[in-house]
Design goal:
By secondary structure, the chain is of the alpha/beta class. The chain is built from eleven helices and nine strands. It has helices spanning 21-31, 48-59, 93-101, 116-126, 141-150, 155-161, 186-190, 229-236, 241-250, 256-265, 271-278, and strands spanning 37-41, 66-70, 81-84, 107-110, 132-136, 162-174, 180-182, 201-203, 215-226. The strands form two sheets. Strands 3-2-4-5-1-6-9 form a seven-stranded mixed beta sheet, sandwiched between helices. Helix 10 runs antiparallel to helix 11 (271-278). The longest helix is centred in the first third of the chain and has 12 residues, at 48-59.
Length: 281
């Protein structure tokens, strides 16, 4: 497998990520805090690192000491200190974080929380001193909360240090030159996407511009879980992911599937594509 990174044509603005206005405001509110940990979660290749880079660009005022530890360093930014993990010299995420603590950082980015040691240092030793941005591999935002507890982090530490969780997926965009309007939403409704009977949706076509795939470009779908007082109280009682998710949805959290449905109705992606990334049958 070969991953190609086009470093000459990269957009790292939050407005380029695909947030709707309400989600963007919530995400920027997370970033404005002087401490706490913000997690971005999703499977490999879902754009987590790109979202974190966009967050760093938003925070980079030219006067802040921003330090990252990554494996690998995918893109290099002027004015930001970036550390490459190197297990051969014992430079792990955990050891790198300990070193970063001595450098009085204003913002820290940890490429991935892979083990309990890294999680403990990030939450217990770092998050109360400076904002920490990191990623986890979980299917949704609520599962990220319980994953930290399962790693052995005390619930009161998770509850007190967590700012919020952003779960995301990438969907391919329908080619604007060849996408075709479907007459009804019967198929969409039968496949459990939250579309109303009157909602139109489009299917991929195929032309030379999109190399006959029907798709051209990608956009992210986001699910944002703010760690408010109610969610914190559930963390303290060791509530499971389903309970946290149900409560968050009842309080207005939009799931990734619901975000995908909005993209379908807007004509920017297809039913098949949203079902593919949300693993719905």
């Amino acid at each position: 497998m070969l991953r190609l990174l086009d470093r000459g044509n990269v957009l790292f603005g939050l407005s380029d990520m695909g947030f709707d206005p309400a989600d963007l405001a919530t995400f920027e509110r997370f970033l404005s805090r002087s401490s706490g940990i913000l997690l971005v979660t999703g499977p490999t290749g879902s754009g987590k690192t790109t979202t974190l880079y966009a967050a760093l660009r938003h925070l980079d005022s030219g006067t802040k000491n921003i330090i990252t530890i990554e494996d690998p360093v995918e893109y290099q930014f002027q004015g930001i200190g970036q550390i490459q993990v190197n297990p051969k010299i014992q430079l792990t995420f955990a050891n790198g974080l300990r070193s970063i603590l001595r450098q009085d950082p204003d913002v820290i980015m940890v490429g991935e929380i892979r083990d309990a040691e890294t999680a403990e240092i990030a939450i217990q030793g770092v998050a109360d001193r400076a904002p920490v941005l990191s990623t986890l591999h979980t299917n949704d935002s609520a599962s990220a909360v319980t994953r930290l507890v399962d790693m052995g982090i005390e619930p009161f530490l998770v509850a007190s240090s967590l700012s919020g969780v952003v779960a995301q997926r990438l969907v391919r965009l329908l080619c604007p030159d060849c996408k075709a309007l479907c007459p009804t939403a019967v198929e969409a409704r039968s496949r459990r996407t939250p579309l109303a009977a009157r909602d139109p949706f489009y299917r991929p076509g195929g032309c030379e511009k999109c190399l006959h795939t029907g798709y051209l470009g990608r956009v992210a779908l986001f699910e944002i879980l703010p760690a408010d007082e109610t969610i914190r109280s559930m963390i303290l009682t060791r509530a499971d992911a389903d309970g946290i998710r149900t409560l968050a949805v009842s309080r207005g959290m939009r799931t990734i599937l619901a975000a995908g449905a909005e993209k379908i109705v807007a004509g920017v992606t297809s039913v098949e594509e949203v079902l593919r990334v949300t693993q719905e049958e």
